[in-house]
Amino acid sequence: MFSYKLPCGSTHTDTNxxxxxxxxxxxxxxxxxxTALQILQDPRWAQxxxxxxxxxxxEMRLFQLMRRIETIEKILEVDIDEDVLKSNLLFIRPLxxxxxxxxxxxxxxxxxxxxxxxxxxxxxxxxxxxxxELIEHVYDDVLNKIPSxxxxxxxxxLVIISxxxxxxxxxxxxxxxxxxxxxxxxxxxxxxxxxxxxSWCLEIVAKYPNYMFSLLGLGDxxxxxxxxxxxxxxxxxxxxxxxxxxxxxxxIDQSAQAExxxxxxxxxxxxxxxxxxxxxxxxxxxxxxxxxxxWSINDDTYDSALRVYKxxxxxxxxxxxxxxxxxxxxxELLKGNNKRVENGFILxxxxxxxxxxxxxxxxxxxxxxxxxxxxSDHSECESWD
Length: 385
Prior knowledge:
By secondary structure, this protein is of the alpha/beta class. The protein has two domains: 258 residues, 3-Layer(aba) Sandwich (Rossmann fold), CATH 3.40.50; 88 residues. The protein has 13 helices and 14 strands. An eight-stranded mixed beta sheet has the order 8-9-7-6-3-4-5-10, sandwiched between helices. A hairpin with a 4-residue loop joins strand 1 and strand 2. The longest helix has 16 residues. It is elongated, with a radius of gyration of 30 Å. The chain starts with 13 loop residues before the first strand and ends in a 17-residue tail after the last helix.
């Protein structure tokens, strides 16, 4: 095991017990999704996580959030239920906003019908696995095959799995009994205690020593019930080389497994993305031009004696440094584009034409209005009424 803390801190839950049950704010599914996203975007490895498989994706709700991670370039949405997948295919389509504000990197999405326990050619080379509230829905024969498929065949860098904590059920049963199968959901095949879940994780890292794991909890217990733990338990498995630690065993060559079958592909789509082919200097200069234009509409910065707007070059540096601008680069760009710089200020020339228009029109609007007497009563202008 290893100690892991979320980059943005743990999710605090406002847990309330009412006369009818327990409520969580944020809701448990929101906490699971947000936690998974935090883990995928952890600065320690975000640049190394380019592809993700979402097992048990069902209605593809997590995808709607995961697709916004710019570092991820490939997402596989996998579920065993083909009908559910087909009925939710529309949720992977790019939105109008995706065409207006395009991604900086490509994103390819495949929707696949298949089992988390079955090895598939599409799973080769995947960097991360997410399986939220999935394992409790499978029978023992499938559950026993999951570790060998994920950790033996796929060998991803990162694995995120969540499942209910049955220790917490004592709180739920204060208000109403569990379902007839003895669990929270009619399709659950089991619900593990914290010790059972930990034992399962320990067995995995014992068999696959290239991995370490850390346990997290989501859905705080109400006051007075801290001993039951959290409503949802989550584990994060990290392949040791992701943390610059040596691997204890050699990774398996997946391509050598010729008998590996393929999942059933239901749909594929590529999101629009924009490749900026400009040089760094061209990008910086475009931003400089924008800032100079914006500055020149602020009368407080206008020097009437010199008839110029004065912008501190330090301000411009602060606005462009994230683009890679330095003092030397700005000096060179300003000089090359004939911009005056004196005593640490950029002098933005005033436009005589613009100021004369302002004075003639806005100060004397009646005198400046065009003569429209020649227009007939049936002028096109009346069409706006």
